Amino acid sequence: MTRLIFLGPPGAGKGTQAQTLAEHLNIPHISTGEILRQAMKEQTPLGIKAQSYVDSGELVPDQLVQDLVQERLNQSDAQSGWILDGFPRKVTQAAFLEELLEKIHQSGERVVNLDAPDEVVVARLLARGRKDDSEEVIRRRLEVYRAETAPLIDYYRDRQRLLSVNGDQSQEEVTSELHQLIAS
Ligand code: ADP
Predict the structure, then answer these.
(1) For residue 27, which of 75, 81, 119, 140 is within the disulfide window of CB 3.0 to 4.6 Å?
(2) pLDDT tens, 86-112?
(3) DSSP characters for 133-146?
(4) Quick one: which residues bind AMP (predicted)?
């Protein structure tokens, strides 16, 4: 049973790697960013509530993402494992997840920290050109990452759940490092 959380700054390659690995393992790739972008596109109540936060590089309120993750993890395809990408993004969300996983008997998750230097992630994000990838919003997302998300590295290290992968290498190299890591 594989249950993985991907951690790392925006632009580290989390989305790509999480997607590839999930396909390889035949388990769902659950990206809160993607779910929110889809909801915004469809202008659902969730999307409408999330829009201004996402557009400015801020985190959307915990309740919104926590509800969506809880619902998603209860779906049938998530019972045989999952990869979470973009959640948790702050300590309050991690505490929520810990409690949720215990309640639904899905504990035993491992956390992959995919890291890369600032100049590498900024260059990648600028090249990607998503709507929330303007230079100003990127800078804000990095600040939010450092202040809110990076503390999760210690949080999960303390709980002996943390694995680390160097995101500053080619996509193929990262994929192969990941395969080795989760096989061990
Ligand atoms: P990236 O990792 O490239 O910055 P994501 O696709 O993971 O982007 O997320 C895009 C945006 O969605 C974030 O900037 C934030 O506004 C929102 N978001 C995604 N996940 C969360 C979360 N767990 N908590 C709060 N906001 C989130």
Answers:
(1) 81
(2) 999 999 999 999 999 999 999 999 999
(3) -SHHHHHHHHHHII
(4) 32, 37, 58-60, 86-89, 93, 130, 141
